[in-house]
């Protein structure tokens, strides 16, 4: 039963750690943004973000997170990793931090580097947001130099192919990742939930308060 299977994964210790660490990163970054010395680069011009064709995927071997060695720096050449974005970001400096989930409901941190100042704001607010599905070509599992933790690292966004709009999870619940969650966090009005239970679990388990700003 896929629904029960997903529910079991929501309390997985690695998932909790990855999501909480991401939100802690977001909080730290936001606090810096409110610091007047933080140099924000705003742009008024909509950038020309090159959209990749899914023809690029032909001949690539599908791979999942559990098939990648989470203790070894390695580029999986000839493979494609297909994931849903389940945590988004408000900052693209120095890199875009996301959390992604694959078809087995396994999740991992994802870092995107090499963002130009023209496209940064557009990428984080319009493209790489919660519920979007992407393919990552030749995924690179990178062990963090400081924290020694794994992440999926992208150095060139041309290796990301957006899945078609019909695949996206619209109004995704921030706890259970189901679509069409119609309730909101009353404080930040940014987080969707399908029920009071999901909201409570997101607060308790994944520390929603770190990213809850009114
Ligand atoms: Zn839910
Ligand atoms: Zn909130």
TrEMBL record:
SUPFAM superfamilies in UniProt: HIT/MYND zinc finger-like (SSF144232)
Keyword Hydrolase tagged: no
UniProt keyword annotations, A-Z: Metal-binding, Zinc, Zinc-finger
MYND-type domain segment(s): 173-212
Molecular-function GO terms, alphabetical: zinc ion binding
PROSITE patterns for the chain: ZF_MYND_1
Keyword Metal-binding found: yes
A Pfam family of this chain: zf-MYND
Domain of life, per lineage: Eukaryota
Protein name: MYND-type domain-containing protein
């Amino acid at each position: 039963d896929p629904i029960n299977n997903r529910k079991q994964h929501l309390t997985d210790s690695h998932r909790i750690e990855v999501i909480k660490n991401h939100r802690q990163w977001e909080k730290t970054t936001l606090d810096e943004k409110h610091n007047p010395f933080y140099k924000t680069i705003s742009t008024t011009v909509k950038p020309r973000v090159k959209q990749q064709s899914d023809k690029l995927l032909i001949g690539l071997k599908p791979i999942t997170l559990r098939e990648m060695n989470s203790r070894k720096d390695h580029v999986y050449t000839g493979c494609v990793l297909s994931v849903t974005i389940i945590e988004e970001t408000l900052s693209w400096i120095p890199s875009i931090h996301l959390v992604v989930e694959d078809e087995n409901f396994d999740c991992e941190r994802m870092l995107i580097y090499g963002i130009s100042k023209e496209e940064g704001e557009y990428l984080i607010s319009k493209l790489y947001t919660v519920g979007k599905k992407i393919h990552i070509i030749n995924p690179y599992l990178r062990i963090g130099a400081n924290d020694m933790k794994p992440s999926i690292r992208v150095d060139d966004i041309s290796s990301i192919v957006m899945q078609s709009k019909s695949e996206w999870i619209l109004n995704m619940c921030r706890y259970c990742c189901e679509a069409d969650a119609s309730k909101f966090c009353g404080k930040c009005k940014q987080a969707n939930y399908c029920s009071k239970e999901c909201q409570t679990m997101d607060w308790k388990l994944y520390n929603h308060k770190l990213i809850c700003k009114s």
